[in-house]
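Researcher: Re-running this chain for the archive, since the previous output was lost when a drive failed. Same request as before.
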Amino acid sequence: MAKKSENAVKNVAVSRYGWLVLLLSLVFVAITVCIVKIQYSEGSVWRELGKQETVKKDHEVRPNRGNIYADDGRLLATSEPLYGVYMDFMADGIKKDTLMKYVTPLSQDLAKKFRGKTAAQYKKTILDGWELSRKELEQIAYNKKNNIDKKVKVRSRYVRIIGPDINYIELKEILTYPFFNQRSNKSGLFTEEKTMRRKPFGRLAGRTVGSIYKDYDSGGASGVELKYDSLLKGLPGLKTRQRVQGRWIDVILEEPIDGYDIQTTLNVDIQDMAEKALYDKLVETKAESGVAIVMEVATGEIKAITNLDRMSEGVYAEGNPNAFSYMSEPGSTFKTVSLMVALEDGVVTPTDSFYVGRGVFKYKGRDVNDHDYRKGVNKGYVSVTKGMYSSLNTVISQMILKGYEKDPKRYVQKIHDMGLTKKLEWDVPLQGREGTSAIRFPDDKANPFSKTTLPWMSFGYETQVPPIYMLMFYNGIANNGKMIQPFHTKAITKDGTIYQEFEANVVNPSLCSERTLNQIREILRGVVTDGTGRTVDSKLFPISGKTGTAMIASRGGYDGSYYVSFCGYFPSDNPQYTCFVGIRRPQGIPSGGLMPGAVFKRIAEGIYAKNLASTPVEAPKDTVNSLIPVVKNGSMQNTQIVLDGLDQAFSFGGEKTDWIRATKDTVSGKIQLKGSPVQKGYVPNVIGMGARDAVFLLENEGLKVKLVGAGKVKKQSINANSKVAKGSIVTIELG
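Model: Regenerated structure tokens:
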């Protein structure tokens, strides 16, 4: 019985073992079939899917956009990578005890560096992110356990830690902070890189340098950024992103080609002078807009070009390209053109006279009035020279009628021959008729001469000549008759290599004879010494030029407002620079001498002082070591460069920052520098700084700056360290 029972058990075991072998065999066969099916039948599909999970192809690698430089190599526009700083609180490696251990010192370091939050606020942000991640994980587990399909919205994987984007140097620093100095999967720290266009000098030459679209990849929107966008932006490369050990890494397939750099002719210091001088006069006269251009006589290089439009009461900013878009009647600055034509043709000599009486000359039923005709003073006969000095319409109109009344086409042809109507290609992006001049012929069927067009054209009406053309003409006078085209793009470069260099295009090699040129130059000097430009005359050096005042046409007539201008060159005896200043619709009595002339003089004397300051002067030996220079508060880097260059001893105290405050130590003979940290989101303290540094810091915080006076900042209208309200106007008084 026992033996039978033993055999039965044995049979059952063998049977079960057989079934197990059969089952395993079937599983093996099924696996083999699946392997064959996956490898051969569906292999291509699964391989492609695998690649998609581990490799992401065809990602574009953004090239570096080229830089834009001033004439001395200083940066006007550059691209800067910035980083948004975030934490992923669901990172697998984050340990609660480690986080709690280091959250306090981490928060303290963050608050010390990035002052937008206190240490307590940084700590709360981090702990709140951690608590949120635990709640979200609990909710995910609960939904899974209870078969709830509702997806949990996870917010703790993308918690912003530092408010503003930071630069690369700041990023490297925070990677040394407690907790953040671990691998990213243990700290949860990750960054989002973006590229921003930065202008080290803020809004300086803003319209000319231009801007790019908010979407960086859309490229240039205006100015040089738009004109040379195809060169600046470069060519993108190609990369794949491959997942290795749970992390994505970039594999470059094709390197990007960085953009070319643009070297401009703009001079930062002269540009700064021009902008400040024009801005102050526009505020003073409550004008609609203005333009100032400075050109180097011999080269044609534009050293400054500023176009300011009124944005609101007392606030002006770069807007339209006024140097090219002022398509209006130039007024009396055009009288020099008429004078050159008449002198060259032998119609008059500088001493010839015309009867002007009380300043009214009637011609075919229309009055030609002088600016002072209401005074009723009978001036009798006035010479051509004196007529130019006093800018008398009656003299210039009679002069042109004398020579060209019977053949006005000859007068207009002479102007065309000079090159004043030549269509030129400019190195700025323009629209429509901007950057062209319109001086019509008598037989123009579309816009025919009236019976009084000729005399009115002679003193700058019934023509359209933008400022850039008037500047070009007067520069031709300063340049011994050679009229060249102004330009502001000097070269296209890359990695220090010049790929293309530009120079001025010669529009007219000889405007007139040497005799005529000398007569014109003598008269333009007299306008400043004895005429309507007397307020422009400088005690430092001789200036020559011509004032202009023109009524602004509107709807077939004149609306009672004025466009005033001054164009000239300096020094008169050896011209180095030509400058044009124009102001539209100023309030008060319009005056080319008192309004734009004052701006011209301020710019000219500023350039003179700058050039004088750059000329080394040997100080008396007994005073060299006893003189300590006055140092403004401002940029640490720039201050150190200057002090090193002067071989001036200095010491640094306190926390090292990008900005410093400076004092003299008369005992040691040293300059004492002390760190002056700038807190993001708060109004910086700019007292004691130069205008350039002050404007840069304030505008960098989103404030609009109004300058009053000259020198260094002695007062600011919004208190330092108060919260910034972006767009607010802050007035800084200089003295």
